[in-house]
Write a structure and sequence with these properties.
- The structure is a homodimer of 282-residue chains.
- By secondary structure, chain A is an alpha/beta fold.
- Chain A folds into 2 domains: 7-175, HUPs (Rossmann fold, 3-Layer(aba) Sandwich), CATH 3.40.50; 188-281, Pantoate--beta-alanine Ligase, Chain: A,domain 2, CATH 3.30.1300.10.
- The first copy, chain A, is 37% helix and 22% strand.
- Chain A has helices at residues 12-20, 37-49, 77-86, 97-100, 118-122, 126-141, 153-165, 195-200, 203-216, 222-234; strands at residues 7-9, 26-31, 52-57, 91-93, 107-111, 145-149, 171-175, 239-248, 262-270, 273-281.
- In chain A, strand 2 (26-31), helix 2 and strand 3 (52-57) form a beta-alpha-beta unit.
- In chain A, helix 9 (203-216) packs antiparallel against helix 10.
- The A-B interface holds A 12, 16, 104-114, 131-132, 135-136, 139-140, 142, 161-162, 165-169, 251 and B 12, 16, 104-114, 131-132, 135-136, 139-140, 142, 161-162, 165-169, 251.
- Strand 5 of chain A pairs antiparallel with strand 5 (107-111) of chain B, so a sheet runs across the interface.
């Protein structure tokens, strides 16, 4: 019988002490909190693979741009802890911004190419903040495995690349997107949607499915697949397209024709809420 | 009795296998080879502190500028291995540039402020290369302690800062400068000096001693200390001063007056050979 005991720590020294008591292998699930079924699927996978599961909850300030939603990013620690206790997590770490980025902090992990297109083009500095905090989390927790969602496809590519480039002794496991019954990908930001926008938001998944249907019938021209996604998004009056992409799965370079593993992805505004979604082909 | 058996590995997978057999704590001494008494003092300290000593030998291409001496940087692996065997090192790792920086490599560790003055101003990108390779070496070897020389004072400050900022679970130990009998700091680049330059090169240490003598008599004005060093260097016809500095020990910001721990440092050309030296005050 699994004990429902969960350890919650805040400071780095508490974390290191608690971490030393946990049997290995250790699986880390880094989150920004406000957990949903997507996060819980990562926890479930970690629980299955590892002797111990550590979840970090940290709304990482350095990955938010000045015009982004850091201060109003949704938070509900009590609910998060209940969910993680039920999920059989061993240790929850909720560091403070001050301990993660003390006065005089000045070190960054950055990537040259992978951060340029897609989300990186729309959110300058975002992936530098992501890569830096993930490197810090790895060094603090020292997990054997770490779990991320395919929902943030470019983030997953950046983390795979930086883990490999910097030789972090951590296995990166990317878990599939979890969707609501109507297909909307789980996201903490879905809470911002009003009822009409929430309904319209299914257009992201519908557009991905339309492109995949064409692919399944043999379509390999990337422009055609991008146009199918664009036309579907534009058919929804409440949706405003920011970008669509049909790119190489690892390099994220835009394709002319699909030959190998590829990524369809997009960013769409529903009102003021920016949503992303993606699908892997091939 | 210490066995003289030494393990030498090249590939990362060999390293990980060999490292797993070594008792902890593990001390890492990162070097670019062509070892001298300075390196051996680091090895001796590591041998004293740690159950196992790992030395890496890697002339790190990404810390050399396009106009610098990468291709002619001195190398003598056979001699290095003999010295390290005699010094009781357990494991020597000689990675290849290709395995450290494979095709598509694109991840960098960089610092904002500490890399701007002094060596950083003269060698753009140098400390990005240093911080990146040190992060990689830490992740590959996973030592408990790592040893660096005070000779490269700014490098030591950069590594202390980046280790702390990124939460690497490694204790950084900075060992004192080792000098020849006439005061010249040990450096692999000393081999470039001809007999006359070698003799003139003692001017670096003489200028540091002149400034320290003034400090010991109560001088606290940083401009005066800088002028003493400058005048001493300029009195040596074969020496050409690049910079002198009197800065805060941790931040490397130039001082007006010495109040706490401070660093006197300089870069001087003897012919085509660029030498650096420094001394800590307070």
């Amino acid at each position: 019988m699994k004990s429902p005991k969960i350890i919650t720590v805040t400071s780095l020294s508490e974390l290191r002490n608690a971490r030393a008591t946990l049997p290995e292998p250790i699986g880390l699930v880094p989150t920004m909190g406000f957990l949903h079924a997507g996060h819980l699927s990562l926890v479930r996978q970690a629980r299955q693979d590892c002797a111990s599961v550590v979840v970090s909850i940290f709304v990482n300030p350095v990955q938010f741009g000045p015009a982004e939603d850091l201060s109003k990013y949704p938070r509900d620690l009590q609910r998060d802890l209940q969910l993680l206790t039920s999920a059989g997590v061993d240790l929850v770490w909720t560091p403070t911004p001050r301990e993660m980025y003390p006065d005089g902090y000045q070190t960054w992990i950055s990537l040259d190419e992978l951060v340029k297109p897609l989300e990186g083009a729309m959110r300058p500095g975002h992936f530098r903040g992501v890569a830096t905090v993930v490197g810090k989390l790895f060094n603090c927790v020292q997990p054997q495995k770490a779990y991320f969602g395919q929902k943030d496809a470019q983030q997953a590519a950046v983390i795979r690349r930086m883990t490999n480039d910097l030789n972090f002794p951590v296995e990166i496991i990317i878990c599939p997107i979890v969707r609501a019954d109507d297909g909307l990908a789980m996201s903490s930001r879905n809470v911002y949607l009003n009822a009409e926008e929430r309904q319209a938001a299914t257009v992201l998944y519908r557009s991905l499915n339309a492109a995949r249907a064409a692919f399944d019938k043999g379509e390999r021209d990337a422009n055609t697949l991008r146009r199918i996604m664009t036309d579907t998004i534009n058919s929804e009056p409440l949706a405003s397209l920011q970008y669509v992409s049909c790119a190489n799965y690892d390099t994220l370079i835009e394709l002319e024709a699909i030959t190998g593993k590829s990524l369809l992805s997009m960013a769409v505004f529903l009102g003021k809420t920016r949503l992303i979604d993606n699908m892997v082909l091939g």
